[in-house]
Amino acid sequence: MTRFTTSADGTEIAYSVTGSGPALVLVDGALCHRMFGPSTELASVLDKNFTVYTYDRRGRGETGEGVTPWSLEREVEDVDAVIKAAGGSAFVYGSSSGAVLAMEAASRLPGITRLALYEVPFVVDDTYPARPADIIERMNAMLERGERSKMVSTFMRMVGVPGIGLAVMKLTPVWKKLKLVAHTLPWDLALLGSDGRGSKLPADRWNVKVPTLAMDGGKSPEYLRNAMSDAAEVLGADHKTLPGQTHVVKSSVIAPELVEFFSRAQRTAGPIA
Q: Which InterPro entries match (predicted)?
């Protein structure tokens, strides 16, 4: 069942709740939402241990584009609104660009008590081509021309989807769903800032003070594993590589890692005075 909570600017944020236990908020990556992406399946595995909150980020699923224009601050406020709906505090897990949003939120929101991340899509060295400096402007120009399919194609090529795979995707129902949320791609690219140009992450960009777990997949591209290693160092996080996993991590593999990490908070909390 869909529920709604109101963000600071008045935007109604759609979310779902399942399970019981400590609150855990899942933050999706680019082009994903509750009904299109990994969060619902992952929630169904995690809800034996947590009360899991999945939500539609702005412009996706049942959440509108926003009462006010998109900005990083508005997206952080949306996370805050979901945490408040969860009772005011929660663990947070973010994947891909959703992991970047989770990092930003954890730097600003006291309601986040533990943070887990999977494969922030930064480019921190020369193991992968740097993102074009004008990619957001190019995406916005395509959007103005109504070229949603081209936006998705451009993004997919940029993240390494091979041409044959792209050709097959265009023939499936998935492509239509991707085009529906193509207008959010410039927003996700803006989340990444300039941290895609092949340089190490700035040590002062984030101020995350809660225990953090940074994860990547053993079969993921080298640049993603290097980015996660760099992010872990900057955040002072534990770093773990999941053998055999790619950027599309299996729920059955990552769920036990999340259960162990977040449950550690319960084991170390001590008795209530």
A: AB_hydrolase, AB_hydrolase_1, AB_hydrolase_fold
Query: Domain 3-123+197-268 falls in which CATH fold?
Result: Rossmann fold (3.40.50)
> Which regions in the chain score pLDDT beneath 50?
269-273
3-state helix, strand, coil in the chain (%, to 5): 40, 20, 40
For 183, what's the count of Cα atoms within 13 Å in the CB-facing half-sphere? 15
| Angle between helices 185-192 and 97-108 in degrees, nearest 10 | 60
Q: What is the pTM of this model?
A: 0.95
The two beta strands, 12-19 and 3-6, are antiparallel
Mean pLDDT of the chain: 94
Task: Decide if 112 contacts 139 (C-beta within 8 A).
Answer: no
Write the pLDDT tens digit of every residue in 152-201: 999 999 998 989 999 999 999 999 999 999 999 999 999 998 766 788 99
Domain segments of the chain as ranges: 3-123+197-268, 135-189
Q: How many CB atoms lie within 10 A of CB 235?
A: 24
Sign, CA dihedral 177-180-186-190, equals negative
